[in-house]
Amino acid sequence: MEHLYMHQPHHKRSDYDYKVYNYERDVLYLIKGRWGRLEDRVILYDLHGEEIYRATQVLLSILPKFELSFEREFIGNINKHIRFKQIYFTVSHLDWVIRGNYEKKEYSITKHGKKIAGIQKSTASKGNYFFISYSEPEYKGLYCLLATLLDHYAPDYLKNTPMRLVRGEENHSFLFFKSQPKKKR
Question: What's the superkingdom here (predicted)?
Answer without folding.
Answer: Bacteria
